[in-house]
Automatic annotation (TrEMBL):
Residue ranges annotated for the Endonuclease/exonuclease/phosphatase domain, each copy included: 117-316
Stored InterPro entries: Endo/exonu/phosph_ase_sf, Endo/exonuclease/phosphatase
Transmembrane helix found in the keyword field: yes
Protein name per Swiss-Prot or TrEMBL: Endonuclease/exonuclease/phosphatase domain-containing protein
Superkingdom of the organism of origin: Bacteria
SUPFAM superfamilies: DNase I-like
Keywords of this entry: Membrane, Transmembrane, Transmembrane helix
Membrane spanning residue stretches: 21-40, 60-77, 82-102
Record-level Gene Ontology MF annotations: catalytic activity
Amino acid sequence: MDRSGGTRRRVGHRVSRTSRGTKIFSAIIIACSLLLAAVLGLHRFIPNRWYNLGSLIETFLPWFGLLILPLLILAAVRRRPVAIAATLVPAIVWFSDFAGLIPDKEIGDGDFRIVAHNVNAENLDTEATAATLVEAEPDLIALVELTAEQQESWGVALAEQYPYSAVFGTVGLWSNQPIAASNEVDLNLGWARAFRAEVEIDGEPVAVYVAHLLSVRVNSEGFTSAQRNDTANLLGEAIAAEDLERVVLAGDLNGTVQDRSLAPITYQLESAQAAAGKGFGFTWPADRPLARIDQVLYRGLEATASGVLDSTASDHRPVSADFRF
């Protein structure tokens, strides 16, 4: 009896320990799921004062959805209904934020097309890069990170099909429609990285801004973006003062539309990719894109299509967008 009773007590002890471990495991899954949901849904409340953590998370925010699947699998293996239900919370938040980007939202032909590309200062293959862009049959080609040597090469490559152009510093625009006026947008850098051009598209004036905001860095200091943020503020002020109703901004903003630091711009303009594209439209790095930092934003127009072109010799992929008056 004592031996039997002792065995029962030891078995009961093992069952109790197993049950306690399962509950702890489930609690961890629930806590991780709710934390993930909070990051996805409340990311704008994550402070930037610690290594610019909020902006860093927002730059790669869509990828946080990949954490949902392992949590769901672990909860399902343990057969814990409450844990399974908890993993659905971040899934719902993710889908509410990003599911709308997945389907193709192209709605037909537009009145004009713009292609934007960071050509990379080290890109020596102007001819092949230009062929990729021209193949998309754009009316406007916005280029950034141009060296002086590249500007001459691009002028030769595009002159026949795009006789109108404006170049300021390291950014330029080539057009098959007349450019009525152009002027630098001062980003307080000492050299030009942004400008405004008034383009007469079939007689309709459109303010086209071409910009290359300063780069950000991820290092021991975190996500260093103060200078990029300053240039975003100045560009946002210029766009806010724009008199024309129709506005297009194209170029490398070194940030995603989710990054709160680009709010001075993104609060005024819509994303062509979000409105008329398919998928996330990641552009950088070109070989395995993780983020969309090359943008075409607009207001006063209707976006009818948006996409990412084939890779060139640059470390960025080109983007295109179609618009209707």
